[in-house]
Amino acid sequence: MLLKTLIALCTVFTNLAISVLASGSGRRADTSTCSPETAAVRQEWGDMTDPQRTAYIDAVLCLMSTPSVYSPGVVPGAKSHFDDFMAVHINNTLTIHISGIFLPWHREFVRLYEQALQQKCIGTGPGGRRSLRALSSTAAPPPSPATVLTMRHRVLTRLPKAFTSPRGTGGGCVTGGPFVNHTINFGPFSTNDAFEGILPANWQDYTPHCFVRDLNDYVANMYGNTTIVDALLAASTIAEFQGNMTGYPATLAGLGPHPGIHISLGWALQDFFASPGDPAFYLHHGMVDRTWALWQEMDPENRQTALNGTASLGNPVTSPVVTLDTVVEWGPLGPAKTVGELMDIMSGEYCYRYV
Ligand SMILES: *[C@@H]1O[C@H](CO)[C@@H](O)[C@H](O)[C@H]1NC(C)=O
Ligand SMILES: *[C@@H]1O[C@H](CO)[C@@H](O)[C@H](O)[C@H]1NC(C)=O
Ligand SMILES: *[C@@H]1O[C@H](CO)[C@@H](O)[C@H](O)[C@H]1NC(C)=O
Ligand SMILES: *[C@@H]1O[C@H](CO)[C@@H](O)[C@H](O)[C@H]1NC(C)=O
Ligand SMILES: *[C@@H]1O[C@H](CO)[C@@H](O)[C@H](O)[C@H]1NC(C)=O
Ligand SMILES: [Cu+2]
């Protein structure tokens, strides 16, 4: 199921794996030493070899069996370091989406995940390669027929626009592939809560349920196609780029590729709060980051520092306007940073590029 999904994604928007296996160092770098030659390269999933894909998946499985860094009892649902990323995303959902910090926050979030995979699961330091499982894609059981829980004609009424689509391919619990035993330990949460500004009470609770997907090619092709990405890259302002990327305010016909691709994979990735429970989250957000970085690179002088929006979901005027000095946080995953530190993927602590 997973490989099938990823192959399906190769034709659309979300086809980027992060640079766990990248050439280049990806180390902490300063502006003077980061160059295209030294930068880590984030590869496209479709261009990776089978052994590279297997190694990437193994690193993700390793993170799923690496202990949580929360103090015991603080976030009972966080059973692994993979879950820690979900927890931080859930806890920050009401500020990091449809806001001026959406793009920079998720840029750093993906980098922290990439770093965790490298340091805890692929690291070459003391301890060496830890607990990588030899789980080859060919050993995965065949996918079972679709069961229940499709998103058939599902209507998300509280999104900026009501949205309907043809049904997906089926869905239900993932019954094959390398993530067959992956359990979602938080939620599920209601998207409506997000649009009403509610962080669900007791979101930290341990509420294990199966990992559900429902692939929907119609949605993926409709809202994540090349035409849309090309149009985004031609945006003249950050307001237009960000607005059409996120479909809010809904300028683009339909959803925009960010929510569109979330919805195209089914329930786990649709969960507005807990979407990082689907490992595909990080491939999708790699592509969101790539599109933003490409757009910035076309006119660095004007775009490297361009921001638009306030610090809360929906950009209410009662929330502070986001500037380069706005401080953003990732809980126990990494230190707080200013937005200004997150604007250039080839300076400061960043030194990576996309192909
Ligand atoms: C949730 O985020 C807030 C900051 O918005 C922070 O003060 C709090 O400690 C976080 N809670 C957990 C459990 O990480
Ligand atoms: C999934 O869990 C079942 C039951 O614990 C186990 O028999 C099976 O080997 C696991 N599969 C994988 C791929 O880890
Ligand atoms: C690409 O997306 C646009 C906007 O959603 C849509 O109008 C168009 O039909 C899509 N093209 C294809 C080939 O799906
Ligand atoms: C944003 O969406 C509007 C409405 O669909 C479209 O006219 C415009 O070209 C789009 N701009 C970009 C940069 O995608
Ligand atoms: C974002 O851009 C829009 C369109 O240019 C503008 O009306 C709005 O005031 C900007 N918001 C902020 C907070 O800068
Ligand atoms: Cu998010």
Automatic annotation (TrEMBL):
Q: Which residues form the signal peptide?
A: 1-22
Supply the InterPro entries for this chain.
Di-copper_centre_dom_sf, Tyrosinase/Hemocyanin, Tyrosinase_Cu-bd
Protein name per UniProt: Common central domain-containing protein
Q: Which residues are in the Tyrosinase copper-binding domain? A: 97-114, 278-289
Q: Which Pfam families match?
A: Tyrosinase (PF00264)
Q: Which UniProt keywords apply?
A: Metal-binding, Oxidoreductase, Signal
Q: Name one GO molecular function term.
A: oxidoreductase activity
